[in-house]
Amino acid sequence: MFQFFKRVKTVVGSELNAMLDKAEDPVKMLDQFMREMQADIRDAETAVAKQITNEKLLFKKVTDAEQMVSKREEQAVKALEAGNEDLARRALEDKKVHAETAATLRESYERAKTDAASLRSKLDEMKSEFNEMKLKKDSLKARAESAKTRTKMNRAMSNYGDNESKAGFARMEEKVLQYEAEAETSEERRSSSRSLDDELDALDDNGVEDELAALKKKLGK
Question: What domain of life does the UniProt record list for this protein's source (predicted)?
């Protein structure tokens, strides 16, 4: 469990570039690593809790056994004072049994106590490393998002000068200029045609006047 936690910490700390090379999403992967680390911590907390319970149980058994040792010794004294040597002997024999039991239990208790302290220390280390990696994860996530944003912007800027939209805009501008030129040409043609009509109308008017003058002359007017 603790070894796996160390492995996850190593991956988060030194293999971010490898994740990027494999096209893995570092943000999602970092969140996954943190979830795995949290699961390891919960397993460690369960193990520590069991060890502490075992330590307390052994301590109680040691205490009970040592109390029985004291009790049997007091009873042996009372039996002798009462003149019952046989009862005193049996009390001392039972005292010896409890003393041996107490010694064995104390040895187990001391070992359990040491193990519990070691597990608590490792759990504290895991939690400390987890908090450290949590801060690092937040920093890496922010850097990853910033890098992705810069990449998108750079790609957009690199395509900005020669993309289809700009080329299409230029074509439309050319068409507008063409429309304006055609409009000006049609206006010039219209103006030219109107002048010709005016001149022809003037000629027509002059012919009428000449004809009218001839008729007047013919009539003697």
Answer: Bacteria
Q: Are residues 136 and 34 in the same domain?
A: yes
Beta carbons within 8 Å of 108's beta carbon, 6+ residues apart: 58
Encode pLDDT of 190-210 as tens digits. Answer: 666 666 566 656 655 556 677
Tokens of 85: 């040597």
Burial class (CB in 10 A: 0-12, 13-18, 19+), 37: buried
Question: Structure pTM?
Answer: 0.54
- Give per-residue pLDDT as tens, 170-184: 788 888 888 888 888
Residues 11-39 have pLDDT tens digits of: 555 555 555 455 567 778 888 888 999 99
Note down the domain range covering 148. 2-160
Sequence-separated contacts (24+) of 13-20 with Cβ below 8 Å: 13/133, 13/136, 16/140
Q: Token pair of 73, please?
A: 């010794």
Query: How many distinct helices (H) and strands (E) make up the chain?
Result: 5, 0
Say what the alpha-carbon torsion angle 186, 187, 193, 196 is, to the nearest 10 degrees.
-150
Question: 50: which 2 tokens?
Answer: 């069991």
Are residues 86 and 26 part of one domain? yes
Using an 8 Å Cβ cutoff, are 72 and 92 in contact? yes
* CATH code: domain of residue 61: 1.10.287
